[in-house]
Amino acid sequence: MTKKAGRTLTEHELGMDRAIPRRDFLNGAAMTIAAALVPHALQTGRKELDEPQNGAGYNPPIATGLRGSHPGSFEIAHSLRDGTFWKTASAPEKLAEKYDLIVVGAGISGLAAAYFYRERAGTAAKILILENHDDFGGHAKRNEFHLGGKLQLLNGGTMLIDSPTPYSEEASGLMKKLGVDAVALDKKCTDHNFYHSLGLGAGVFFDRETFGSDRLVAGAAVDDQGDSDEASTASRKQEFLARSPLSDAVRRDVLRIEHGKIDYLAGLTSAEKKDRLSRISYKEFLLKIAKVDPGVVTYYQTRTNGEWGVGIDAEPALDCWALGLPGFQGLQLEPGSAPRMSYSAAGYANGGSPRFHFPDGNASIARLLVRSLIPTAVPGNSVEDIVAAPVHYDRLDLEASPVRVRLNSTAVHVQNVGEPSAAREVQVTYASGKQVFTVRANACVLACWNMTIPYLCPELPNQQKEALHYLVKVPLVYSSVALRNWTAFQKLGVSDIFAPAAYWNYARLNWPVNIGDYRSPRSPDEPILVHLSRTPCKPGLPAREQHKAGRMELLVTPFELFERKIRDQLARALGSGGFDPSRDIEAITVNRWPHGYGYEYNPLFDPEWPDGQQPHILGRKPFGRIAIANSDSGATAYTDVAIDQAYRAANELLCA
Ligand SMILES: Cc1cc2nc3c(=O)[nH]c(=O)nc-3n(C[C@H](O)[C@H](O)[C@H](O)COP(=O)(O)OP(=O)(O)OC[C@H]3O[C@@H](n4cnc5c(N)ncnc54)[C@H](O)[C@@H]3O)c2cc1C
Description:
The chain has 656 residues and is an alpha/beta fold.
């Protein structure tokens, strides 16, 4: 319950009883249920017209409620895992369709695998892409709202083109063929200075459960004032901290960590310091080496959540240095990566890739890929028109088209026909609603999550199955909240709100990007979308255990709880600016990703395997006519890696 002027807000005041577009799709189920009610060819065989995606008005990006891995998308896979699927499944029906390639997973890796395969095999190559969600794109999911008659977009998952390393020749080559020039687009379309020009910047929300009182403090980004003078930034920081509910000891130590120039590891060389920092967590660095007040740890605890899905208790200090966390200024570490760093930290230490955010995140890249594979499904011809282009879902799976995308279809068994080493065909069994089908192809790319593959391919060698299981994906939640205006943000001087210990670690106004006909809101009186993120980790456990525990939490959290937490936190953070959750929230979409980021090895917890023996390398070995893609196979979570893995997998099949 939210306290307002000393009073607790009721459910009614929070707006829990308000009819906004989320109950229409309560728990994300309405569209899936409606789909399940379609008489699936009346048990006489698969008829494309009966596919849910061919129903009138089928348009998943506008669905609100629980999205991401929405109800209806994962139950079949879970029953396969639990060994119950085949006990209740209907007998598979053999389809007459025959393909050159079947791809399992319509994320960016699966779509890119189809693209690369077709590029080499020719445009006549027949390709079927199966996807268990109701939309293509995988994590690159689009959230679409129409507010006051105007299109507004947010990424439900993959946020932007941004990687620790420059895109490879293959990935940047694909971007070029799709017309995506991140540098040029960013320059032309992104108004990086917009909120700043209105006097808005980063703030911190201190919650009363942790810090004793609810307080939003603006002015957290002290170095964005245009002067690079260290004394002025330090004094701004001091002034910021003075307005916080932090104790004097914590304020003093935060100031020292952010602006001090102390060499806490004096006497060691840069390489020795880096090695030392790679073996302790940032939390340990703060407590044991910088010797801060324990309250400082609380202030920084969730700084790494967005990057790795765990807090500073489970991230090496060296990786945190690479990510720009404070405290290392006096150590005089040489720039650049070092041994024993995570993939992301090592890459960012060396520079990273260009960045560009499409209004729907990298869903635009998925849409560009689908346009290139099935042009009639996504009309238009430029990277600028893709953002507002409609998708004709009923044209994704047409018999006449060489490439077909079949949604709401979970692969449950993928096997080589005959001995893997001699196989010339693959048989794929998939379930859609209550029906089960088998279909054959000359080859198959599994671009789905690696830990599902042992269940799909029980015939794989045990060592490979074990390796695939090792990769535990990182759970997280991205919510998109439509507000009728953003005057409260303006009054309080914030565009971004970090909340070190609250349910949602981060909330921000939608980034201002104008591309093609798409226009971001300019006036605080206009409706806007707000992005909130949560990483349900469990500090204190090893990283992979935190991910598993977080996933369980997400699977049992109902939409109603996410909604209440959104209303409660926004009310508490923005109430003094006039924000009223019952009046100002127009719609809510919660993108729940129990299987989110691809797992990245963590030097604190993972062994140093000999080259070639890492689980992702052992796990992605081709098996007969089956190749394995997905960003998991690159042991990290980036779009370019998903593309690189697609290229490798397609090539393995084409070269075999
Ligand atoms: C919240 C979030 C934010 C991210 N932000 C960024 C970012 O800003 N920049 C960036 O570069 N990367 C980001 N990533 C990483 C992102 O995962 C990759 O960029 C990339 O999109 C992964 O693509 P993929 O095709 O390998 O996997 P996915 O996108 O996961 O696609 C795999 C698909 O296979 C489907 N599937 C699984 N099993 C089956 C089955 N049995 N049958 C049928 N289909 C199946 C899955 O449901 C899924 O749709 C983010 C990830 C998440 C979760």
